[in-house]
Amino acid sequence: MMIKVSVCVVTYNHEKFVAQTLDSILMQKTTFPFEIVVGDDCSKDNTATILKEYQQRYPDKIRLILHSKNLGLNGKYNALSTFAAAKGEYIAQFDGDDYLTSPDKLQKQVEMLDAHPEYSACYHNARVIYDDNAAPPYLVNTLAKPAVTVDDLIGEDELCFIATSSLMFRREDFARNPDPEWTNLSTSGDIPRNIMFATRGPIGYIDEVMSVYRKNRGGASFVDNHQSADFLFNRIQMYSNINKELGYKYDQTLRKNIATYYYKLLFSREYGSSYWPRAKYAMKYISLAQPGPEQKREIIRDFIVPPVLMKVYSFFALGWYNFRTKQL
Hints:
- There is one protein chain.
- The chain is α/β, with parallel strands linked by helices.
- 43% of the residues lie in helices and 17% in strands.
- The protein has helices at residues 18-26, 47-57, 76-85, 105-115, 150-153, 171-176, 190-200, 229-245, 251-265, 275-289, 293-304, 307-327, and strands spanning 5-11, 34-40, 62-66, 90-95, 99-100, 121-130, 138-139, 147-148, 168-170, 203-215.
């Protein structure tokens, strides 16, 4: 019998979590065969040993791709290698620290995609938890539409309501339409990939919480540091490429999206105290965001007017105020 689903799991230093991940996949109840393809990105901890133990216990179910060196780009190349090794009609993707909470996840998603050939993919809701309890749990998706389109995935702010562990897509479709080359420069694989799926058809939604997206200090989500200039520049480039890929159909919206990252550069570790870079990025923000008069004046005052001029202005303004006070 042909494999219906390839569950592609990417791991890197997940020794604390990967057993729970694999157990939650192995507990799936399906009317079809599925495989688990695990790609380990040269973990430095005990992850590979744990994977080998599971593969020995489930040799007909689990296949391993153990890379001899880290492929880089926040695990994206590792994910692509697992997709390339998949044999199923559908691919369900996972990070090695996420886990399923429903034994029917695979079955329900396959039934949806079988019933809706027009869908490019489908997803369900997921719960976000912080491994160190740094914040309370919350649900990834609050949109609750039966299917989402490109319009739903493009916003002035970053829209990311499809958890990695919740997505299932068609393997042959992805093989025919791989990620555009420019996405290889992006530290985010999910955002541009989901938008590319939506350009080829709606992404169906199952309104059930069936997985957990775990945020841990060693995980990829904590690499997304909004105080880091490298991360912010990467997002600017990613959304600029998305804008170009979509033929500038959403140009006005994406320009404001990109502007938010230029604004964050004003407070980044690298440029938060440097006048000339901040002045340049502040002007870029004004050009893209087109803020209202009051905010525009504040940006000009705080980031564009040279500090020495502000001191001179303050000196004379205070002197004039004192002079007027004495006259009265």
